[in-house]
Amino acid sequence: MDKHFLFPDNFLWGGAVSACQVEGAYNQGGKGLSTADVLPHGIMGDPTQTIEEDRFYPYHQSIDFYHRYKEDIALFKEMGFTTFRTSIAWSRIFPNGDDSEPNEEGLQFYDNLFDELIKNNIEPVVTITHFETPLHLAHQYGGWADRRLIDFYVHFAKTIFTRYKSKVKYWMTFNEINIILHVPFTGGALTVKRDDDQYEQTLYTAMHHQFVASARVVKLGHEIMGNSAQVGCMIAFGPAYPETCHPLDMIQMQQHMRLTTTFSDVQVRGIYPTHYLNELAQKGISLPIEQDDLILMRENPVDFIGFSYYSSHTVSHKGGGSQQSNFFKNTIKNPFLSPINEKAKEWSWPVDPVGLRYSLHYLQDRYQKPLFIVENGLGAKDEISPDGKIHDDYRIDYLREHLKQVAQAIHEGVNLIGYTSWGPIDLVSATTGQMSKRYGYIYVDRDDQGQGSQQRIPKESFYWYKQVITTKGAHLYS
């Protein structure tokens, strides 16, 4: 029989999106092109670099949140949201990224958006940049490999901190910052080719520049908004398990975990782990560390750790395996995990609710910082039933089991700020560019070719999540 653990009264409940995956209006309101705008097949596909006529780009229209945010926020309020995570499209504020003056129409849009959230008692949580760098910065500078992007990013952050300091308390610097090593164009606006001799050097150069930028923005945020503002990081996280208790499997697990924790170590502790510097040196890679970079990073750690969790990974020193999870390809089938239901098999993610509880304890023990689950959810091909409803019990099953583990972790002492599931309304999938890979509590009538009425229809999970929030989690056990 399940033990019942309730969530704290001040726990933040909500959902998370990114600007490029929901807003649309890619060329309206003075917005410039971003890296997301030239991706016809999501971040796992190749960018076209320019807009090609007669080609469909899913992010151009998305779900038209730009024009329909008020009705969507009304639905979030109906569910009982107390928070909503979104991002600010950099190219909506600075169309080229290196502009000296911001686009007022873009700034006003986010003023209106945050005002609408606050009017509905929903706390905005803002990611400064989420997988969309102004395209001009990729073409003109080669993306984050150029140190000048640090100043452009800080100028952007200063503008939005100053504008929204009375409206936004929680900020995150880069979405899933560790993804830059897996999808360089999306994570770092990098145009270098994989067969280039300088490919790895370019990646790690860009990585360092983002770390420096993050530290500068944490410092800047406290200067502009005071200590009441919370500026955090955001990493893609999933624990690794050894396939067996073979010592070399343990080493493989440790190496896998280091791929992620290096990114949080730098932003939380302000230091590069020695093992990481050694590994880079062995590859002949030198980080472009300038005077005061390390002092800046050490003196300006993030205030909290935001992270996404979708699944865990299982590794072996023998390699092999075919079960993959998002961007991490060296994971193998875990015989102790089984899909909650058939729908959970569609994108081959291992479903591991207990892994989320393990992740919370792992991060708490390592850093002693407040944590924030800012992405977690199930993508599935939802269908409208003959009765006109969407019966997504498979999503309810997935979220129920994960939230039970979250509640238990809090009971066991984890300091968790809140939970924003991905995404509360159907949106364009980042990995594939599809609409058919649906996550939301709210169905959006739009298909993979961009056809549909954009009508919003609450799913069965909409009413379920509302009950979970209302009962502080008691409904998870009913």
Automatic annotation (TrEMBL):
The active site annotation covers E375
Instruction: Tell me the protein's name.
Output: Family 1 glycosylhydrolase
Q: Which domain of life is it from?
A: Bacteria
Coiled coil location: none
User: Is Hydrolase among this UniProt entry's keywords?
Assistant: yes
Alphabetical GO CC annotations of the entry are:
cytosol
> What PANTHER family does the database record attribute to this sequence?
6-PHOSPHO-BETA-GLUCOSIDASE ASCB-RELATED, GLYCOSYL HYDROLASE
Q: Which organism is it from?
A: Entomospira nematocerorum
Give the similarity note.
Belongs to the glycosyl hydrolase 1 family.
Question: What UniProt keywords apply to this chain's record, in alphabetical order?
Answer: Glycosidase, Hydrolase
